[in-house]
Design a protein that fits this description.
- The chain is 47% helix and 10% strand.
- It has 15 helices and seven strands.
- The strands form two sheets. It has a five-stranded antiparallel β-sheet with strand order 1-5-4-3-2. A two-stranded antiparallel ribbon has the order 6-7.
- Strand 4 and strand 5 form a beta hairpin.
- Helix 5 packs antiparallel against helix 9, helix 10 packs across helix 11 and helix 13 crosses helix 14.
Length: 300
Amino acid sequence: MIVKSPIDLELTINSGQTSQPPWTLNGDTYSNAVMVDGEPLIFKVAQSGKYLDFNLDGKKSLDRLKYIFDLDFDLDKFYKYLNNREELKDMSGFCEGLRLFLAPDPFECVISSICSANNSIMRWTKSVSQIRKNWGTQYGNYYTFPKSSDLAKAYLDEEDEFNSSDIQDIRECSNNLKSCGVGYRAPYMRRASEMFTDEMDLFEISSMSYDEAFETILEVPGVGPKVADCILLYGFNFREAFPSDVWIKRIVSYLYFDGKDISVSRVRDFGMEEFGEYAGYVQLYMFHYARKSGLMSKLK
């Protein structure tokens, strides 16, 4: 089934958005297990010209696919917006077809965003994939992300696993969070899992205002402003979020402030005010434009 919404599938899936690790690639087809009405379905997508070739044709599956790849977002309208702004007009040419890669499971986005802090894309995606294998549910060759209630029971490290299990040799302990390569983030992840099991309803966040959702997510250990904005953008499609770190600060400073040293918090406020409903997309395009155009190397 051809889904006629333009997208660059490879660029979108491998763009490092913290919603989830990249889907499995086999030949020219990307695939993953996606829950639809509580049942796992294997989604397979491939590039077909400017569009996607999708293996399923049911309305609910199609709606899910459109959500994950944000296929209802009007890229042409967005490109006109970019092209009418001097600072942004070159970005669509470097990032054509790039879309938000939204989380089928918001809880996975919470954990992967915590894992991404001060971490490389390769390392956090490997860690999140291992968490799926250790505590998720297997469907064929695929694993869904564990529920918060299951991850809340995970051992923190080898010592925790050894002291709380029947294992006789600590060297055999490999079913703990730190064994997934998450390092100091392990306690944050387990505490977040406990909070979303016993104290917070994750699914209420989507019905909140942006400001209320932002303050709620900031209560989670290991979540600062940048990670909170990543969670809201990639996990809940709050497009007014403008995740800001040192790289976005440098790009915004170069484009809008003559290279002056400005704070990350000011950059975030500027992005949200300047770009409004397009803030999340502008941030996404800014980062990839800087990488692809060579601007990033000038800013180091």
